[in-house]
From TrEMBL:
Ranges for domain N-(5'phosphoribosyl) anthranilate isomerase (PRAI): 4-201
Protein name listed in UniProt: N-(5'-phosphoribosyl)anthranilate isomerase
This protein's pathway: Amino-acid biosynthesis; L-tryptophan biosynthesis; L-tryptophan from chorismate: step 3/5
EC number: 5.3.1.24
A molecular-function term among this protein's GO annotations: phosphoribosylanthranilate isomerase activity
Family statement: Belongs to the TrpF family.
UniProt keyword annotations, A-Z: Amino-acid biosynthesis, Aromatic amino acid biosynthesis, Isomerase, Tryptophan biosynthesis
Catalysed reaction equations from the record: N-(5-phospho-beta-D-ribosyl)anthranilate = 1-(2-carboxyphenylamino)-1-deoxy-D-ribulose 5-phosphate
Pfam families according to UniProt: PRAI (PF00697)
Enzyme class: isomerase
InterPro entries given in the database record: Aldolase_TIM, PRAI_dom, RibuloseP-bd_barrel, TrpF_fam
Length: 212
């Protein structure tokens, strides 16, 4: 079963709904974003979440000490870096699952991942849109992501994924995981119950088909 992360969680009802439907991980954005959540609210959301759901903090070129403090305070289990963080920077967080994101426009962009393969736990491939670091709502060619799969570090794909294209994304890229933000929102930072339910229904129907 593909690992599913629902990103841009800002409130308890959305977090609980995503977990009850089957999310494996929730993302809390501490980088500049319309989905940014403050650490106190993130801590309140996280403290009642199931133990086995990963709580991933999303940061962009943040001071190492600030990341460590927020991670400890909120009870994060993973850290996702969306900026120009170096491989050396990524090695400062041994207690946490570290995800480095790369914005993809063309196949050559995959070369940027090479220096990180020994320093991170997961690689996230997201869509390149000028001046938009994440949450673009736009897809990139998933055939490119397929070339990164099997490269030694599990691959998550992100960018413009929703209920109507998630199974195709999985079929084409064959990733370890899928990351979804705006595709299950009614507005930035607020999840849409119907879109979320439809997403998991679609994913589950694929699993049923696979095991028939
Ligand atoms: O989502 C944001 O607003 C965001 C802003 C700044 C840095 C990272 C951000 N999101 C990180 C994610 O993991 C998103 O889920 C990912 O970019 C996919 O977004 P979407 O295209 O909306 O599904």
């Amino acid at each position: 079963m593909t690992w599913i992360k629902i990103c841009g969680i800002t409130n308890i009802p959305d977090a609980k709904l995503a977990c009850s439907l089957g999310a494996d991980a929730l993302g809390f954005i501490f980088a500049p974003s319309t989905r940014k959540v403050n650490p106190k609210i993130a801590q309140e959301i996280i403290k009642d979440l199931p133990f086995d759901v990963e709580k991933i903090g999303v940061f962009m070129d943040e001071d190492i000490k600030v990341v460590q403090e927020i991670a400890e305070y909120c009870g994060l289990t993973g850290l996702q870096f969306h900026g120009k963080e170096s491989p050396k920077y990524c090695k400062n967080f041994a207690k946490y699952k570290v995800i480095k994101s790369f914005r993809i426009k063309e196949e050559q962009d995959l070369e940027k991942t090479n220096d990180y393969l020994e320093n991170v736990d997961l690689i996230l491939l997201d869509t390149y849109v000028p001046a938009v670091p994440g949450g673009t709502g736009k897809t990139f060619p998933w055939e490119i992501a397929r070339k990164q799969v099997g490269g030694g570090v599990p691959v998550i794909i992100a960018g413009g994924i929703n209920a109507s294209n998630v199974n195709k994304a999985i079929r084409v890229a064959s990733p370890f995981g899928i990351d979804i933000g705006s595709g299950v929102e009614s507005e930035p930072g607020k999840k849409d119950k119907e879109k979320l339910s439809k997403l998991f229904k679609t994913l589950n129907s694929k699993e049923e088909m696979r095991y028939e």
